[in-house]
């Protein structure tokens, strides 16, 4: 029996227009009736995710910032605090690449240097609570992770260039062609799902998850029923128990309906 369903957002639950079929709100009532925990597992900011699911947000579990922030609705269950020496080192490294935009994810909000204000429209697509700052030293917050945006949509070419300078405890995860994240190697969506499994006393075998990109890899490896989207990268498809319809065909919602019907 499935007792927990988790899904990635971009490229998975959301279609190419960054939207989801609002019939999900009706489907969510059935999820609750079956007493299934519903989890959003995303690299995105918590505030952005929470606002997307109003008015049911307080009944949803969120694994935000790729596992660095976990909550039940607005109730924080866990947050990672990046060591200041790591923060300073990442900033020092990224200063060598001014053509790409770092976003520092904090617990209170996210932070971007004023020199990147020209990308404000892109920022607003992903962040609901953010602040422009003159200097990174102006930030007074607990740091969760770094996200980096490439306006030219070729972020992969920077991975090896940045990786060679990073402390060994830090890692890079890409999400599509535009974004990558830098965070501690122990923090990922798989960490988040294991945290919730322990909190809710739900076993590996009682969990299902959906994903499409490599930052979903650990999430899918830590559930009994890993589903890959038809639009997923090959490495994600290779570890899936089933490939479902694409994000533009509402593959997640269709499969959840099947799960609910079969979940006796």
Topology at a glance:
Layout lengths: L3 E4 L1 H5 L10 H10 L3 E5 L4 H7 L8 E4 L4 E4 L2 E5 L4 H11 L6 E6 L3 E4 L6 H7 L3 E4 L9 E7 L9 H5 L6 E6 L3 E6 L4 H12 L6 E5 L5 H5 L3 E5 L4 H4 L4 E3 L6 H12 L2
Parallel strand pairs: 1-2, 1-12, 2-3, 7-8, 12-13, 13-14
Antiparallel strand pairs: 3-4, 4-5, 6-7, 6-9, 9-11, 10-11
Helix pairs in contact: 2-10
Structure report:
The protein has 10 helices and 14 strands. An 8-stranded mixed beta sheet has the order 5-4-3-2-1-12-13-14, with helices on both faces. With 264 residues, the chain is α/β, with parallel strands linked by helices. The N and C termini lie close together (7 Å). Helix 9 (234-237) links the parallel strand 13 and strand 14.
Number of E-type strands: 14
Considering DSSP H and I runs of 4 or more, what fraction of the residues is helical? Answer: 25-40%
- Please report the distance between the alpha carbons of the first and last residues: 7 Å
Radius of gyration: 18 Å
**Poorly predicted sequence stretches spanning 5 or more consecutive residues:** none
Mean pLDDT metric: 95
Structural class category? alpha/beta
Q: Rough shape?
A: globular
- Helical stretch tally: 10
Specify the biggest β-sheet: 8 strands, mixed
Question: What is the element string, with H for helices and E for strands?
Answer: EHHEHEEEHEEHEEHEEHEHEHEH
Physical arrangement of strands within the biggest beta sheet: 5-4-3-2-1-12-13-14
Strand portion: 25-35%
